[in-house]
Specification:
alpha/beta, Rossmann fold
Amino acid sequence: MNKNILVINGNPKSESFCKVLASHYIKSSEQGNDVRLISINSLEFDPNLNFGYSGEYALEADLIYFQQSVAWAEHVVFIFPVWWGGMPAKLKGLIDRIFLPDFAFKYKSNNPMPEKLLKNKSADIILTMDAIPFYHRWIQGDPVYRQLKRSTLRFCGFNKVSATYIGSIINSSEKQRDNWVKQVARLAKKV
């Protein structure tokens, strides 16, 4: 079945292993699907919510396109490095600026639980790291996946969110990187 797939390269560096993984994910999933790539390193926007969610913010052109792409997508793929147990600041700022009330969720009077406006979407989260995945998941408690899955995507209506852990990048061989590329390609073919 044809799907709309949005692949987000969340590494702010222009050249990275995340870029390689995003490229292979796209190549493996584009047959029979419509696929878009957004690389945050090329986006220009203010990542700060200077007035929280109580202020009105005009979205920059890149953010309008990103928001339209999220609305268009049935499946969203986040590929980014884990830095200090979390996502890169620019990616976090992008999420803060895009997943807004009346787009991603909506509160109704006298109800503390929001209406989820991004229903029937799924996501893959592909995390690269210099730590070993076991340490990140079981010693550190998997903070970035828990935050993105539970506090953002599920909160807004995504119904299926999975994670793939890739590391340790810093000490990896070319053969190991090739294996990770193949792993991501297999993941893309399952969509």
